[in-house]
Design brief:
Elements lengths: L1 H11 L7 E5 L2 H16 L4 E5 L10 H6 L7 E2 L7 H19 L3 E5 L3 H12 L3 E5 L11 H12 L2 E4 L2 H9 L7 E3 L3 H16 L2 H4 L8 E4 L3 H4 L2 H18 L3 E4 L2 H10 L6 E4 L4 H10 L2 E4 L2 H10 L3 E3 L7 H6 L2 E3 L4 H12 L14 H11 L1
Parallel strand pairs: 1-2, 1-4, 2-3, 4-5, 5-6, 6-7, 8-9, 8-11, 9-10, 11-12, 12-13
Bound molecules: uridine-diphosphate-N-acetylglucosamine and uridine-5'-diphosphate.
């Protein structure tokens, strides 16, 4: 009742008149959509969150709603894991039912997961407008499932919220109309700035894990092309173990469930590497900010290390975040042990003086403002 009065009030006073659906399904989407959810709450907008259930383990899903104090999603499709087609198909079916019933004016999706692909296709087919948050990223590597998802989402969406000028240029090169593209910055900057102080006040993960600032390495790896391939994963772990021995510093490894499963299946031992359960965002921000160096194949981690001033070695041969390479916060190392070691040595001697290229922390505000004026 109160909410509907407020929605009317804001409508009369020129704020967003439309109904929004925020679709999310995985850990990074929850984190990067959280500033938009907060913005909707702050402005009392008419919106609802639809969770696809692509991620479902407590530490990949609920932990983030609890940590970031986000409202419970209005819908959870509980699709769980499966092959690409199975997962995408189930998500499409579930989303279609909800949006036909709820009739949002705009559906917002974020990033490059199967949830994004399914959300974009389902909404556009029933003539509901789609806003793609984090549009225009390209690795130019079509063997990555994420690249296919990004390309399709960008070409089908009505509003393309590009984080940087470079991502806007990628879209223009593919013939996407300029009038659909809005450079807003990446909502990850909003999320980092909104949560870093809370993290410093409320958690002390270094103490909990018995670590000292700048005296440990942080590792994450979950990219399918790395961890589903025995040889690739073996090389990656060997490179990291060698670094650990060389520097006698702990390597903390919050381990993604996909990777945990593969390590068990391949019978690998984690020599010198310290695996822990995936941690909450507040803990992870502290681990990143205080690490001597971060090794990762994650997209979001390449951005966050750049924002937080921590050097990053990316365990891939390409990246859809070339801005981090340009400013010098990140380097591509692939998975060959020698290259990982040399990249780590180089990055540790670099000055940490780069400027964050991903925006000023007001991306969510700009996205909602854009929808308001459309
Ligand atoms: C997905 C995204 C990837 C994103 C990542 C974020 C696609 C194609 N991939 O990859 O782009 O970077 O999320 O973390 O959309 N599992 C659990 N619990 C969970 C989730 C997954 O145990 O909550 C395990 C299952 O064994 C599952 C496997 O992890 O089969 C992979 O999960 P899936 O969602 O298919 O892909 P991710 O590797 O998480
Ligand atoms: N993250 C986290 N806890 C962890 C590992 C990662 O909170 O143990 C966060 C991290 O801060 C980043 C996001 O998860 O915001 C990145 O997710 P992931 O690497 O799974 O996906 P990607 O960004 O590659 O799509």
């Amino acid at each position: 009742m109160i909410k509907s009065i407020l929605v009317q009030y804001y409508s009369l006073n020129g704020d967003l008149k439309m109904k929004l659906s925020i679709i999310l399904g995985t850990r990074p989407e929850i984190i990067k959509m959280s500033p938009l959810i907060r913005e909707c709450e702050k402005r009392n907008l008419d919106y609802f969150v639809l969770h696809t259930g692509q991620h479902y383990s407590y530490e990949m899903d609920r932990a983030f709603f609890d940590d970031l104090e986000l409202p419970k999603p209005a819908y959870n499709l509980d699709v769980g894991s499966g092959s690409h087609a199975e997962q995408t198909g189930k998500i499409m079916e579930g989303i279609e039912k909800v949006i036909i019933e709820e009739k949002p004016d705009v559906v917002l999706v974020q990033g490059d997961t199967n949830t994004v692909l399914a959300g974009t296709l389902a909404a556009s087919k029933v003539h509901i407008k789609v806003g793609h948050v984090e549009a225009g990223l390209r690795s130019y590597d079509r063997s990555m499932p994420e690249e296919i998802n990004r390309v399709v989402a960008d070409h089908v969406s009505d509003y393309l919220f590009a984080p940087t000028e470079l991502s806007k240029q990628n879209l223009l090169k593919e013939g996407i109309e300029e009038s659909k593209i809005f450079v807003t910055g990446n909502t990850i900057v909003d999320a980092v700035l909104q949560n870093l102080e809370i993290s410093n006040k409320n958690v002390d993960v270094l103490n909990d894990l018995n670590l000292k600032s700048k005296e440990y390495f942080l590792l994450t790896s979950h990219r399918a092309e790395n961890v589903d391939n025995r040889e690739q994963l073996g090389k990656l772990l060997k490179g990291i173990s060698t670094i650990q021995k060389e520097y006698s510093l702990p390597v903390v490894f919050p381990i993604h469930p996909r990777t945990e499963k593969r390590i068990k299946e391949f019978g690998f031992s984690l020599e010198g590497i310290r695996p822990i359960k995936p941690v909450g965002f507040l803990e992870f921000l502290q681990l990143e900010a205080n690490a001597r160096l971060v090794f990762t194949d994650s997209g979001g981690v390449q951005e966050e290390t750049c924002i937080l001033g921590t050097p990053c070695v990316t365990l891939r041969d390409n990246t859809e975040r070339p801005e981090t390479l340009e400013v010098g916060s990140n380097v591509l190392a692939g998975v060959e042990p020698d290259r990982i070691i040399q990249s780590a040595i180089n990055m540790m001697s670099e000055k940490r003086t780069w400027i964050n290229p991903f925006g000023d922390g007001r991306a969510a505000e700009k996205i909602i403002d854009t929808l308001r004026t459309e």
